[in-house]
From TrEMBL, chain A:
Compartments where found: Cell membrane
Topology class, membrane: Multi-pass membrane protein
Membrane-crossing segments per the record: 35-53, 100-123, 135-159, 171-194, 215-240, 285-305
Protein name per Swiss-Prot or TrEMBL: Carbohydrate ABC transporter permease
UniProt source species: Paenibacillus spongiae
Pfam families on file: BPD_transp_1 (PF00528)
Highest taxon of the lineage: Bacteria
TrEMBL record, chain B:
InterPro entries documented for this protein: MetI-like (IPR000515), MetI-like_sf (IPR035906), UgpAE/MalFG_permease (IPR050809)
Organism for this UniProt entry: Paenibacillus spongiae
Membrane topology: Multi-pass membrane protein
Signal sequence, start to end: none
Keyword tRNA processing: no
Keyword Cell membrane: yes
Alphabetized UniProt keyword annotations: Cell membrane, Membrane, Transmembrane, Transmembrane helix, Transport
Protein's name in the database: Sugar ABC transporter permease
Subcellular location: Cell membrane
Family of the protein in this entry: Belongs to the binding-protein-dependent transport system permease family.
Length: 320, 287
C-alpha cells in the first residue's frame, strides 16, 4: 500500500509540480498555512486592534496637546508641541496622591481576600464531599446572577447600623467572605481549576496523614498559580474600575477611590478653572489626562504581568 | 466506633474551615439583604432622622410598576431588543477572534496584549468617557447612509431603533468581548492536537473540522460565555433599567429590583432552554 502511495506521489511530483507548489504556497496545505489565510488573519486582527487602540491613542495624543493645537482642526494626531500642563491639572483635580493610594489599598486587599476565600470555597466544591453541597452550588450560581442593585439598599442600611457606611472598609469587607464584585465568578474559576488537578495527590497526602487544611496550603494552593493570577488580576481590575459600590457606600466622604473621583471630574475641573463656562476643549484635554492617570497603574501592572497571565489563561482553561 | 465518629467530626470541622467563610458571607451579603429587600418592597419606607419607618403597603408597588405606568416597559423593551442582538454578536465575534489568536503567527503575543485591553477599560467609568467623546461609534452608518436602508428594510417595526443603536455602538460590542475572548482562548487550549490531526488524516476539510470538532468541544465555553454576557449586560450599572432603580424611594426601588431580578432569571432560563434544545439537535445531527 505504502509503495503505491509513494509511487503516486513521485509521479505527481514530476507532472504537476508547478501548479501544486503554487497552490500550496497561496492556499496552503492546510487552510491555515496559506498566504491568503495569513493575509486575511492579519487584516482582521489589525482592524480590530485598531478599533481597540484608537480611543487609547486619542487619549494619549489629546493629553499632550496645548490649547492652540486642540482648537486647530488641522492637528489631528501629531501635536506641534508636547505640553504636560493638562496632566498637572488632572493630577490636582483627581487629588491623585490620595485617591491613588486608596485605590491601591482597596483593590489590593480585595484581590488578596478574594484569592484566599474564593480559593478555599472553590477547593471544597471541587474536591470535598459534604452534606448540602448541591445546595451550595445552587446558591453560588444564584449569587452570580443576582444584580447588585437588588441587595444594595439593605446593605447600605446594614452598614449604617454597623458604622461602616462612608468608610473604606465597606468596600473590602464583602471580599473577606468571598463576595463583593463578581466573587461568585472567582469561586467558579477556582472550582474549575481544582477539578482538573489529578486525584492521586490527595490520596498521597491522606496516607501521609496531613490535615486537609495543611494539604491545601502546602500542595494545592501553590499548584493553583494560574488560577490565582487570573482571579487576582480580574479582582484587582474590576475593583479598581468600579464606581457603583463606592457611589452607594461612600456618599459623604472625601476618601474615595480613583475611579469615583474620576466620575466627579466635571465639577472639580470647573471649580479649579474657577468659572462655569471654561473652554470645552480644555476640559476635554484635562479629562483625557485624568482618564490616563486613572488607568495608567493598571496598564503598567498589565504590561508587566501579561506574559505570565497569558500563559496562565492557556494552562488553566479558566472556567468550565 | 467512637474513633470513627470523632474522625467524621474532624472531617466536618475541616470542611467548615473551607466553606465557613463563604457561607457566612452568603448569609450577610446575600441572604439577609435579599430578604430585607423583599420585606422593603412590601412596605412604604420613610427615612426619619436616625431611623427608618416601615408602613405595610402590600403589593401596591408591584401593581404600580407592572400595571400603573409604562415607565419600566419603555426602558426595558428597547434594552431587551438590544441584548437579543448584541449577545449573539458578542459571542460569534469573540469566538472568531479567539480562534484567530490561537493560530501560530508572528506577532501573536502583541495582538493578545491588545485584546486584553478591553478588560482593563470596559469595567470602568473610562468607557463612559470614551462613549461621550464619540469613540463608541464607527461612524459607518452615517458614512454609507446605511440608516436609510435600515429604515426602508425594517420599516416602522419596533426593531429599527435597537438595530440602529447596536450598529451605531458597534465598537462597544467589541469592547464588551474582552473576557469572552479570553474564555474561548482558554477553552480552545483544552482541545487536544491529536483530535485535529486524526481528523485531517481522515480527510476532513478545515470547514468540517471546525463544525465537528472545534464547535462541539467549545460548547461548554459557549454556554458559560452566554451566561456571563447576559448577566454582564443586565447588571451593568449604566443600563437604563438600573438607572431607573436608583431614582425612586426605597420600597419602590426594592420592588423594581425584584421585578428586574425575576425578569433576568426568566430570560436566562429561556436562553438556557433554547441553548439546550439547539445543542441536543446539533448532537443528534452530528451522529
Amino acid at each position: 500500500m505504502n509503495v503505491i502511495v509513494n509511487k503516486l506521489r513521485a509521479a505527481n511530483r514530476w507532472t504537476g509540480i508547478g501548479l501544486e507548489t503554487l497552490r500550496y504556497a497561496i492556499l496552503g496545505r492546510e487552510i491555515n498555512r496559506g498566504l491568503v489565510f495569513k493575509l486575511f488573519l492579519y487584516w482582521i486582527l489589525i482592524i480590530t486592534a485598531y478599533i481597540y487602540l484608537n480611543p487609547v491613542m486619542k487619549m494619549i495624543v489629546k493629553m499632550v496637546m496645548n490649547e492652540k493645537d486642540l482648537v486647530d482642526p488641522t492637528v489631528a494626531w501629531i501635536p506641534n508641541e508636547i505640553y504636560w500642563g493638562h496632566l498637572g491639572s488632572a493630577w490636582q483635580a483627581l487629588n491623585y496622591a490620595q485617591t491613588l493610594t486608596i485605590s491601591m489599598m482597596v483593590s489590593g486587599l480585595v484581590a488578596v481576600f478574594h484569592i484566599i476565600t474564593c480559593g478555599l470555597m472553590g477547593y471544597a466544591l471541587a474536591r470535598m464531599s459534604f452534606p448540602f453541597k448541591k445546595l451550595l452550588v445552587f446558591l453560588l450560581v444564584m449569587s452570580f446572577i443576582i444584580p447588585p442593585q437588588v441587595i444594595v439598599l439593605p446593605m447600605i442600611i446594614m452598614y449604617t447600623k454597623l458604622g461602616f457606611q462612608n468608610h473604606l472598609t465597606s468596600l473590602v469587607i464583602p471580599a473577606i467572605f468571598g463576595f463583593g464584585i463578581k466573587g461568585a465568578l472567582f469561586v467558579i474559576i477556582f472550582r474549575q481549576f481544582y477539578t482538573t488537578q489529578p486525584k492521586e495527590l490527595e490520596e498521597a497526602a491522606k496516607i501521609d496523614g496531613a490535615s486537609a487544611f495543611r494539604f491545601y496550603w502546602r500542595v494545592m494552593f501553590p499548584l493553583a498559580k494560574p488560577a490565582v493570577l487570573i482571579v487576582g488580576m480580574f479582582s484587582f481590575v474590576w475593583t479598581w474600575n468600579d464606581t457603583y459600590y463606592p457611589r452607594m457606600f461612600l456618599g459623604q466622604t472625601d476618601n474615595v477611590p480613583l475611579a469615583m473621583q474620576m466620575s466627579f471630574l466635571d465639577n472639580s475641573i470647573k471649580a479649579m478653572l474657577s468659572q462655569e463656562d471654561a473652554a470645552p476643549v480644555l476640559i476635554e484635554a484635562i479629562k483625557m489626562s485624568a482618564s490616563f492617570l486613572t488607568i495608567a497603574p493598571l496598564l503598567a501592572i498589565f504590561f508587566f504581568a501579561q506574559r505570565y497571565l497569558m500563559e496562565s489563561v492557556e494552562r488553566s482553561g479558566i472556567v468550565e | 466506633m467512637r474513633k470513627l465518629v470523632s474522625a467524621l467530626r474532624l472531617r466536618n470541622m475541616e470542611t467548615l474551615l473551607f466553606v465557613g467563610p463563604w457561607l457566612l458571607g452568603f448569609l450577610f451579603f446575600m441572604a439577609f439583604p435579599l430578604f430585607f429587600s423583599m420585606y422593603m418592597s412590601f412596605h412604604k419606607v420613610t427615612v426619619l432622622p436616625y431611623r427608618f419607618k416601615y408602613e405595610f403597603n402590600g403589593v401596591n408597588y408591584y401593581r404600580e410598576i407592572l400595571f400603573g405606568s409604562s415607565e419600566l416597559y419603555d426602558k426595558l423593551i428597547p434594552f431587551f431588543q438590544e441584548i437579543v442582538i448584541m449577545v449573539p454578536v458578542i459571542l460569534v465575534f469573540s469566538l472568531f477572534i479567539a480562534i484567530m489568536l490561537n493560530q501560530n503567527f508572528p506577532g501573536r503575543a502583541l495582538f493578545r496584549v491588545v485584546f486584553f485591553l478591553p478588560i482593563i477599560f470596559t469595567s470602568g467609568y473610562i468607557l463612559t468617557e470614551f462613549v461621550n467623546q464619540g469613540e463608541g461609534t464607527l461612524g459607518f452608518l452615517d458614512r454609507f447612509s446605511l440608516g436609510q436602508y435600515l429604515n426602508q428594510f425594517l420599516g416602522d417595526s419596533s426593531w429599527a431603533k435597537p438595530v440602529q443603536d447596536v450598529l451605531n455602538r458597534f465598537v462597544l460590542v467589541l469592547w464588551y468581548s474582552g473576557v469572552q475572548i479570553l474564555n474561548f482562548l482558554a477553552g480552545r487550549q483544552t482541545i487536544s492536537k491529536s483530535a485535529y490531526e486524526s481528523a485531517r488524516i481522515d480527510g476532513a476539510s478545515p470547514w468540517e473540522v471546525f463544525w465537528k470538532i472545534t464547535l462541539p468541544a467549545m460548547s461548554p465555553y459557549i454556554l458559560l460565555n452566554l451566561i456571563y454576557t447576559v448577566v454582564d449586560m443586565f447588571t451593568f450599572p449604566y443600563n437604563p433599567v438600573i438607572e431607573l432603580i436608583n431614582t425612586g424611594n426605597y420600597g419602590y426601588n426594592s420592588a423594581l429590583a425584584w421585578i428586574y431580578f425575576i425578569i433576568i432569571v426568566s430570560f436566562l432560563s429561556t436562553v438556557l432552554l433554547l441553548y439546550n434544545r439547539i445543542n441536543k439537535h446539533a448532537a443528534g445531527a452530528g451522529r
